[in-house]
Write a structure and sequence with these properties.
Layout: E1 7-15, E2 18-27, H1 37-40, E3 45-50, E4 53-57, E5 68-72, E6 76-78, H2 79-106
Length: 118
């Protein structure tokens, strides 16, 4: 597992005979101001809204309200919905990882100080 990888913890529950997941923790998610601008300009993306919630912006051309998803510690989800949340989190995380790797390579020699005569 990568050192800076975000983590979701969840507990299995059975409610009225249905398999459910209760989100018990959201760890190492980045705040909006910590993320690269390139990442935050487009969907899909996610960020820590607070210590116990995250916001995901996901593509949906049909309904605007379905393009955002707030995930909160204590939330109970049906198995299908939980799997969809985890899937979109992975898509967002993979997108962020690719952007970070490219930016790291582009900026690796951008250091030091220079003097400009005017």
């Amino acid at each position: 597992m990568k050192e800076n990888m975000a983590i979701v913890t969840a507990r299995k529950e059975v409610i009225k005979g249905k398999r459910m997941w209760m989100i018990t923790g959201l760890h190492k998610f980045k705040k909006l101001e910590e993320l690269p601008e390139e990442y935050t300009r487009e969907k899909p993306m996610m960020y820590a809204y607070s210590t116990d919630s995250i916001i995901m912006w996901i593509p949906d051309k049909i309904e605007y309200k379905r393009t955002t998803k707030k995930v909160v510690v204590g939330e109970i989800c049906e198995q299908r919905e939980f799997e969809e949340i985890i899937n979109w989190m992975r898509v967002c995380g993979n997108r962020l990882d690719k952007i970070n790797e490219r930016l790291k390579e582009e900026n690796k020699n951008w250091k030091g100080e220079e003097v400009f005569e005017i």
